[in-house]
Amino acid sequence: MDFAKIITETTEEIFNCMIFIDIAASPPLAAGKQAMGCHVSAMIGLTGGLSAMLGIHCPSAVGLAVTGAMLGMELEEVDADVKDALGEIANMLAGGIKERLSTENIALELAIPTAVTGQSYVISAPKGSQRVVIPFTISQGQFFVEIKYQLN
Amino acid sequence: MGKTVLIVDDSNTMRKIVSRALRQAGIDFSTILEAGDGQEALDVLSANDVDVILSDINMPNMNGLEFLKAKSEIAAIKDIPVVMISTETGADIIDEAKSYGAKGAIKKPFTPELINETLGALL
Amino acid sequence: MEHAQEIINSTQEIFSSMIMLDVTPGEPFIRNNDKLINSISGIVGLAGATKGMLAIHMTNAAALAVTTAFLGMDVEEIDDDVRDAIGELANMLAGSIKSILDPSGSDIKLSMPSAIYGEDYSVDCLAGAEAVTVPFAFDGLGFVVELQLRKDS
């Protein structure tokens, strides 16, 4: 259950296949550090062999660039397309995690994505849950893919 | 002459993503039609000539498997090939889709090359 | 609106038994993705054959009052205790609603709760789920409980 590796590989696969933007993964953030400066997030719950929340968190400019590349169109503001596209990425990330963990005999089911947008918000997980956050860099800035989980 | 494709997905954004991938796949589609669920897809099929269908599996109202079943019972459209697109594509669901006549399955994330390969064989 | 009564029953039961607060329900409505100002939201994903989300959205003032009653200790700012309490509240509400909607326990599974808080944010569920929200009032404060469900027939 090497989430840093799973997240990095799954994210790279999605960007290589469907978004066509070069991304550079950084090492996981140190424990206790959060994704900062993000104004649009998509999250999806996973449950079964473990209970988890997977999220992708972006500054607006990064969310617009990623969605624009994914949809093949120019976008100017964080609208329903941006939320849906990030939701779709969260869904694919969760699908990739589900597939990889099934080979370790950990069965998972997915919820549906939720988008959070705003000028000022923080997303926290229960005390005692584990958290892995991987920063990725594109030319417009950084985004973060995060998993918070507890073993059931 | 260009072909007509029908994209069935409840997410408007996902339909745009699939449209973009179709353009990048280099297949000459003259018309890209869209439907938000299986029932809407049946309505579109009753009014248009469609060469191939790309359908999501998990959808409200009428899901992809129900759509396949309903379509297989309508003589005029039962032979139009359908390729399923889904994130959670377990082998059992794919087998079920194929038993209802699906010609293939594409798992997200997908590349334009995979779309080209899968659809090219059906057109 | 479908499921409003289940939300009311579950919320009243949990608030009266666990938090010792009597909460009064208002008219169910569709919340869309209205902005939340100086608020905290507890959300839990629902997975399985029926998918969705259960959320409780509270102003900071309501969250402090609820957490104070829930934990039996004074809390004065949105800290770890408040975030955990609101996440746990979402978890209990989701568990209770699940037990009504899915008595056999096979159709809906709960994922881990999260708390979202801030000065200005909005939360919206994607993927075309059916949504219903019920407002509740207590001691001049208020909160809403939102259920989004999507059954992939």
From TrEMBL, chain A:
InterPro entries: CheC-like_sf (IPR028976), CheX-like (IPR038756), CheX-like_dom (IPR028051). GO terms for biological process: chemotaxis. Keywords: Chemotaxis. It comes from the Bacteria. Residues 40-137 form the Chemotaxis phosphatase CheX-like domain. Pfam families: CheX. This is Chemotaxis protein CheX. It comes from Pelovirga terrestris.
UniProtKB/TrEMBL annotation, chain B:
The keyword Magnesium does not apply. SUPFAM superfamilies: CheY-like. It holds the Pfam family Response_reg. Residues 4-123 form the Response regulatory domain. The keyword Iron does not apply. It comes from the Bacteria. Keywords: Phosphoprotein. The modification 4-aspartylphosphate is found at residue 56. InterPro entries: Bact_response_regulator, CheY-like_superfamily, Sig_transdc_resp-reg_receiver. GO terms for biological process: phosphorelay signal transduction system. This is Response regulator. It comes from Pelovirga terrestris.
Automatic annotation (TrEMBL), chain C:
InterPro entries: CheC-like_sf (IPR028976), CheX-like (IPR038756), CheX-like_dom (IPR028051). SUPFAM superfamilies: CheC-like (SSF103039). GO terms for biological process: chemotaxis. Pfam families: CheX. It comes from the Bacteria. The keyword Thylakoid does not apply. Residues 40-136 form the Chemotaxis phosphatase CheX-like domain. The keyword Lyase does not apply. Keywords: Chemotaxis. PANTHER family: CHEY-P PHOSPHATASE CHEX. This is Chemotaxis protein CheX. It comes from Pelovirga terrestris.
